[in-house]
Amino acid sequence: MEKTFLMIKPDGVQRNLIGEVTSKFEKKGFKLAGAKLMKIDRALAEEHYGEHKGKPFFEELVDFITSGPVFAMVWEGENVILTARQMMGATNPQEASPGTVRGDHGLTVGKNVIHGSDSAQSAEREIGLFFNESELIDYNKDN
Ligand code: CMP
């Protein structure tokens, strides 16, 4: 089954949006395969956002994502990578449609509440960066 990596950013955790956001994905029908509330260190932040290294907002991005706890998650389900991106809305909340996580709860492109993998390749890479295999539930095996 397809898996993706989603992360509620420090602004979302601080604003008590964990329940609201996870509920949205649960209600859609996706299964939560792993989750942890954690503080990201600089090395992990720089690796996770490696593709943005050199961009003008990179330092600000790393500063922000390491500024407070994040809620890292692995979700699974049919076509979950693309569907989760659609449910999150555009990166810039001002362009995100109402009904999406960023459209309903985000204000700025930096503080945009949630991150989600943008492809199968990034999902695999990001899940591996944040989770060990033993931290993930295999519903096919266990249920
Ligand atoms: P995210 O999906 O986590 O991936 C990269 C992040 O960079 C993005 O969400 C934004 O929060 C952040 N970011 C900050 N400034 C910009 C910008 N000017 N353009 C695009 N992304 C930005």
Helices and strands in order:
Layout: E1 3-8, H1 10-14, H2 18-28, E2 31-38, H3 42-48, H4 58-65, E3 70-76, H5 80-88, H6 101-105, E4 114-116, H7 120-130, H8 139-142
Antiparallel strand pairs: 1-3, 1-4, 2-3
Bound molecules: adenosine-3',5'-cyclic-monophosphate (CMP).
InterPro entries: NDK-like_dom, NDK-like_dom_sf, Nucleoside_diP_kinase
Active site: 115 (pros-phosphohistidine intermediate)
Modified residues (Phosphothreonine): 91
Care to describe what's here?
- The protein is an alpha+beta fold and 143 residues long.
- It has a single domain, classed as Alpha-Beta Plaits (2-Layer Sandwich), CATH 3.30.70.141.
- The protein has 8 helices and 4 strands; from the N terminus they run E-H-H-E-H-H-E-H-H-E-H-H.
- Strands 2-3-1-4 form a 4-stranded antiparallel sheet.
- The two termini are 14 Å apart.
- The protein binds adenosine-3',5'-cyclic-monophosphate.
- The site of adenosine-3',5'-cyclic-monophosphate has 8 residues, from loops.
